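Tokens for chain A. Residues wanted.
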């Protein structure tokens, strides 16, 4: 952030601190007087704070004559604008799962359950094998896998050129890759597709993982991925 940006952010925090310092709603003028700044400066920062959910307007008391002033108060909750550390949470859960018995099957089951719930919101009209494959590619693309449908030796495959969990997969492919396998199988099951993913081969090339499609005449083993 630039020096100017730091000053703007700092002033905004001062406006929020003024609101938090009292249990009563405050007017723009009262905040400005307390901080020694122009009311327009306070109004500018309040607009942002309200938009971020950190402050809120309060209906004023209309018993007196004239137009009542705008009143504001702080929203007392965790700051929604604070930093996120989802990768740390993912690493914690990954370590926990990796330490359990048969982690690959459990990881695949978790991915499968999530995908069935999410993909099940889609249209469930009957679809062909080719339609299923294209829908799977679209589903994976929305998740950030950069998938491409291809045919090798007469069999359909989905090549994955990007891993949205790359840092985790490089250090824990025995758990993360089965999650990917479960995602694909769960989505296809949710659509009642006539195909499934027979197996997933991670990193067959440095920038490529391959999912092998096959007719869903049987239920594949939960951990059919090639480490």
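Reply:
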């Amino acid at each position: 952030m630039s020096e100017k940006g730091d000053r703007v952010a700092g002033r905004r925090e001062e406006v929020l601190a003024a609101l938090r310092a009292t249990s009563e709603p405050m007017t723009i003028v009262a905040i400005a007087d307390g901080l020694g700044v122009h009311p327009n400066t306070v109004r500018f920062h309040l607009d942002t704070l309200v938009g971020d959910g950190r402050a809120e307007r309060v209906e004023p008391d209309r018993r007196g004559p004239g137009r009542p002033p705008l009143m504001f108060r702080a929203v007392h909750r965790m700051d929604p604008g604070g930093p996120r550390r989802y990768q740390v949470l993912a690493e914690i859960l990954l370590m926990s799962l990796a330490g359990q018995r048969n982690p690959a099957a459990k990881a695949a089951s978790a991915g499968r359950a999530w995908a069935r719930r999410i993909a099940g919101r889609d249209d469930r009209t009957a679809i062909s094998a080719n339609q299923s494959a294209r829908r799977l590619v679209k589903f994976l693309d929305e998740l950030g896998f950069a998938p491409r449908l291809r045919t090798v030796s007469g069999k359909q495959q989905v090549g994955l050129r990007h891993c949205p969990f790359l840092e985790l997969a490089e250090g824990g492919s025995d758990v993360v890759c089965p999650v990917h396998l479960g995602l694909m199988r769960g989505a296809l099951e949710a659509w009642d597709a006539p195909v499934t993913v027979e197996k997933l081969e991670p990193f067959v090339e440095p920038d490529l993982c391959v999912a092998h499609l096959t007719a869903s005449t049987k239920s594949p083993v939960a951990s059919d991925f090639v480490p």
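Residues 74 and 214 are 57 Å apart (CA to CA). The first helix runs from residue 3 to 20.
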